[in-house]
Amino acid sequence: MAIDAQHGGVVTPPDILHGDRGDLDRQAAQIVADAIGVRLQDAPHVVLGVVGGRSVGGIYQYLRDMPLAWEKLHVFLADERLVPVTSDESNFKLVDTDLLASARADGRMPSDHAHAFPFDPNVADAGLSSYDHALDELGGRFDIAILSAGEDGHTASLFPDHPSIRSEAPGFVLVESSPKPPPRRISASRRLLERTPLGLIVFYGEEKRAALQRFSAAETQVSRCPSKVITAMERGVVLTDLTY
User: Model-level pTM greater than 0.85?
Assistant: First the structure.
């Protein structure tokens, strides 16, 4: 183990899984399913933090058909755009379609366990304090996080050399002037992700090669490559279809 001098945390080398994307998605889903089972041996529920997007859609499609304890699973967004939940830009809409809708429709998962961000344009924090409170009521952390890396090394809505990654917020953080549109978002903070026992992150496709190389360089700080936040978790798992 090493120390991230910039933030004072312990750095744990992640497990790195290489292979075909379909096989990796299936492995990732099984890792998550196994972790849910282990967590429920001594906890009443499991909190899963997720992102939207094509990179993680395959994992969700395997997970949604697994015999999980859906009634004990709570799902929060690790990042969301500040748009109505009905918008095509909503990450919750993507996650619901790929992962949650069938379990909610057939009664396996209570609808109020699918925690969409309560966007309210009429309050100063857009609903962030309400989302923090909902997570606090369930223990104040994710038990498992499913993340993806951007081409610049960002994850969730934590961007390199940006106020989002420098925030010391314990829960969610309001992101202004995002380098990636739309400019206003919320994100799990660095501190919230660091407290997550298990994190999976995907680097899929040639366009993520530079980000993976930056992630893999020992000298790269989390502030320059936020995807490295999983190295502060108890266990981090990297999935990639790239060789390097």
Answer: yes
